[in-house]
């Protein structure tokens, strides 16, 4: 049996920003391969500054890559205004702060209908807005038409943002920290909504988050990003129950239910304009610092030898000399 082609794929993607005041360019995305299948939810996980939002913006066509390619439904993404407008009808963005996403002077109806008006929706606008609000869990939808954002709770505002994405009937949504600004009691409702939309509509999603607990609850697959690259990827069960990369292990160790003492990483993620030689995590790696990499005979490789870019497929992969050494011994 042949594996169906991914709905969205990135191949050897690089996004570089010019350095300030003569500094070296910042390699925000530094060689990424990522696939998202139809009806699949993929979580992109990492600390702030690791490049995950830049990667998401590049997949949306908001940032043109310096090199590499993005393909959607088997076709390369084009960057003309007309092509991007058609693309964004099929791929929609949901931002983390619903208060910042919604114009305080626009009613809920106007906020949800905006996409229809931009794209020239030929059908019944009122019916389309009502259906989107209903699917987002705001029922009866007519009760929300004339409300303004300040009259809604945080969870209701996020549902309006989701309805504004759903109204165009996209095939994929990119949700950037979709519950980060919400109370804990509301987060579960929004995550359950994303899962329900996948079941009811066959919707695919890329969920960008720093929260591995969120990834566990909502994703089929997880891709862990560090300093512009995916360093570990696989099914959510494989990666989060048996993490192989020391960075993934450190991220998981601080969850409340994690066994043992949390791993405290020293320092901040390195500057993307000064990516270190060897494994890009080695300066903060608890395995290297604790002598385990030395005992495995890979300490020099950790400091000097770069690792291959991980493939975008759904197999479990890790970019770590120590993890590879453990498999071969």
From TrEMBL:
CDD domains: ABC_NikE_OppD_transporters (cd03257). Gene3D superfamilies: P-loop containing nucleotide triphosphate hydrolases. InterPro entries: AAA+_ATPase, ABC_transp_ATP-bind, ABC_transporter-like_ATP-bd, ABC_transporter-like_CS, Oligopep_ABC_C, P-loop_NTPase. Keywords: ATP-binding, Nucleotide-binding, Transport. Signal peptide: none annotated. SUPFAM superfamilies: P-loop containing nucleoside triphosphate hydrolases. Coiled coil: none annotated. It holds the Pfam family oligo_HPY. One of its GO terms (molecular function) is ATP binding. Residues 8-252 form the ABC transporter domain. PANTHER family: D,D-DIPEPTIDE TRANSPORT ATP-BINDING PROTEIN DDPF-RELATED, TRANSPORT ATP-BINDING PROTEIN. Belongs to the ABC transporter superfamily. This is ABC transporter ATP-binding protein. It comes from Streptomyces gilvifuscus.
């Amino acid at each position: 049996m042949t594996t169906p082609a991914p709905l969205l794929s990135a191949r050897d993607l690089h996004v570089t920003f010019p350095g300030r005041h003569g500094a070296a360019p910042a390699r925000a995305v530094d060689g990424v391969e990522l696939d998202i299948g139809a009806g699949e939810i993929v979580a992109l996980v990492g600390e702030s500054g690791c490049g995950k939002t830049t990667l998401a913006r590049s997949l949306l066509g908001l940032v043109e890559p310096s090199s590499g390619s993005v393909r959607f439904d088997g076709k390369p993404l084009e960057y003309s205004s007309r092509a991007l407008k058609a693309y964004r009808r099929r791929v929609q963005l949901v931002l983390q702060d619903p208060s910042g996403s919604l114009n305080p002077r626009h009613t809920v109806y106007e906020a949800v209908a905006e996409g229809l008006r931009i794209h020239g929706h030929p059908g019944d606008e009122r019916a389309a807005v009502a259906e989107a609000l209903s699917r987002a869990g705001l029922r009866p939808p007519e009760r929300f038409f004339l409300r303004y954002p300040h009259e809604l709770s945080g969870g209701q505002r996020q549902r309006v943002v989701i309805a504004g994405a759903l109204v165009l009937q996209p095939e994929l949504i990119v949700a950037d920290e979709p519950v980060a600004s919400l109370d804990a009691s509301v987060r579960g409702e929004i995550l359950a909504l994303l899962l329900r939309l996948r079941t009811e509509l066959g919707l695919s999603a890329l969920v960008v988050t720093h929260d591995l607990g969120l990834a566990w609850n909502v994703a089929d697959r997880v891709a862990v990003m560090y300093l512009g690259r995916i360093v570990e990827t696989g099914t959510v069960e494989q990666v989060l129950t048996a993490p192989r990369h020391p960075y993934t292990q450190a991220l998981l160790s601080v969850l409340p239910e994690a066994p043992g003492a949390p791993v405290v990483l020293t320092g901040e993620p390195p500057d993307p304009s000064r990516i270190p030689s060897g494994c890009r995590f080695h300066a903060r790696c608890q395995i290297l610092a604790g002598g385990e990499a030395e005992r495995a005979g890979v300490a020099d490789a950790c400091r000097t030898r770069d690792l291959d870019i991980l493939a975008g497929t759904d197999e479990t992969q890790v970019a770590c000399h120590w993890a590879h050494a453990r498999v071969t011994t």
